[in-house]
Amino acid sequence: MSDRPDVFFSPSTTTFDIVEKPLNSWARLANQTALRKTFLLVLLAGIWEAYARWLNNPLLFPTFTDTVAAFVSSIASGELPRAAAYTIQMLLKGYAAGLALAALLTAFASATRIGADLLETLTAMFNPLPSIALLPLALVWFGLGSGSIIFVLIHAVLWAVALNAHAGFRAVSPTLRMVGQNYGLSRTAYITRILIPGAFPSILTGLKVGWAFAWRTLIAAELVFGVSSGSGGLGWYIFERKNELLIPSVFAGLLTVILFGLLVDNLIFRTVENRTVRRWGMQT
């Protein structure tokens, strides 16, 4: 027998209160995602400035302050906003067209076996092919115009989005599918309430990857393709400033691309993610 006495706790007389310890100021600040990311950006800018000053070669690697000065000067002159507006316009056209084709291809692949086989075959064939490698053919097919760039943008977006979306639909739980069927949902309601929410994490990943691929392809295409209809984008802006040995302006163009990437990821994709997959409990 045990030597320990029996201890009985009466629910009517004994209660256990859990007291949450308040966070101190540093802990509250550390829980702010925006502050943590801002701190990392400031730290990277400081490392950039320190390395450039240590290297002491503005033609090779300008300082962060010189880059910011060139960035502000280019905005004031209107050159950088014009180049950025042209690039964004082309990017949105190619991205939208790529998404539309990806939606059609994914719908066909989800509806029939031959569609799934077609998507898997085309993806295996064309997804490894760099989009910029198609630019010479695009110039032959579509001429010296925006059509050539939009063609390579569609190629950059289409396969990443379609592949991730199709994988997301295939990964939807069979239990979740049976629940939707047992509720007697219509075909449209079954797709919008069961399949799309279940596949949306993969769809969102495809949208992000497609956006990143489109940015890379467009800047590279503009570096090669140059000016279309008297207008040049950020890639051409960077190329011209490199030829003029205005290296801070080259870095200012690259900084613009980086800022657009941060803006889209944190304001658009992060907002969509918080209002969908995080609210649905699919991600933490």
How does the SSE layout of this entry go?
Elements: H1 25-30, H2 33-55, H3 64-77, H4 79-111, H5 113-126, H6 135-142, H7 146-170, H8 174-182, H9 187-225, H10 234-243, H11 247-275
Kindly list the characteristics that best describe this protein.
single chain, 284 residues, mainly alpha, MetI-like fold
Give a brief description.
With 284 residues, the protein is an all-alpha fold.
Task: Write structural notes for this entry.
With 284 residues, this protein is mostly helical. The chain has a domain at 79-275: MetI-like (MetI-like fold, Orthogonal Bundle), CATH 1.10.3720.10. Helices cover 74% and strands 0% of the residues. The chain has helices at 25-30, 33-55, 64-77, 79-111, 113-126, 135-142, 146-170, 174-182, 187-225, 234-243, 247-275. Helix 4 packs across helix 10.
Q: Shape, please?
A: flat
Fourth-tier CATH superfamily name of the domain at 79-275: MetI-like
Query: What CATH architecture of the domain at 79-275 do you see?
Result: Orthogonal Bundle
CATH topology of the domain at 79-275: MetI-like fold
Q: Any idea what the radius of gyration is?
A: 26 Å
Q: β content, as a range?
A: under 5%
> How many angstroms does the end-to-end distance come to?
48 Å
Total helix count?
A: 11
The average pLDDT score comes to 81
- Total strands: 0
Oligomer: single chain
User: By helix and strand content, what is the structural category?
Assistant: mainly alpha
| Residue windows where pLDDT falls under 50 for at least 5 positions | 1-10
